[in-house]
Amino acid sequence: MIGGFYMEKICIVYDSMHNMNTEKLVLSLKENYNDVDIIKVNNFDINAIDNYPKIGLASGIYWGRFSKNIEELLDKILDSDVKNLFFIYTSGIGKVRYEKKLIKRLEEKNKICLGIFSCKGFDKYGPFKLIGGINKGKPNEKDIQNLIKFFENI
Fold first, then answer.
1. N or C: which end of the chain has fewer CB within 10 A?
2. What 3-state DSSP class applies to 114?
3. GO terms for molecular function, please (predicted)?
4. Helix locations, 8-140, DSSP H
5. Each residue of 94-137: pLDDT tens digit?
6. What is the pTM of this model?
7. Do residues 48 and 94 make contact, with C-beta atoms less than 8 angstroms apart?
């Protein structure tokens, strides 16, 4: 329930592989909205997709894209009857150009993008490992509060 109103059933399917940045974010939503289903991508049953009028996909960004598992699920969702999607991602470099391509894919399939939330995440992949990583402590409490504000408008 948000502001005294009951929300439509919402599911967030996520993949968080390296530093668990994305998992930290989506699980913080569960603390505030216990009626939201938050499911790891490998545990999501595609046959349950029609139970949710709104689906969020959450992932870290790996080489400029969502995880392979989230990309594969997105392809299936784009061919389903689900219309309303939103996205959450973390990235070592922050906002990525991927958003324009993502919105174009949705528009081509007559889907509605309810919003895209992104924030920096701790990254120690590749050369960043040599310096102990970048964005230490990210996502932080401010990022979580920003995600909650974003989610309230979904």
1. N
2. strand
3. FMN binding; menaquinone-dependent protoporphyrinogen oxidase activity
4. 21-32, 68-78, 98-108
5. 566 778 889 999 999 999 999 999 876 655 555 555 555 545 65
6. 0.85
7. no
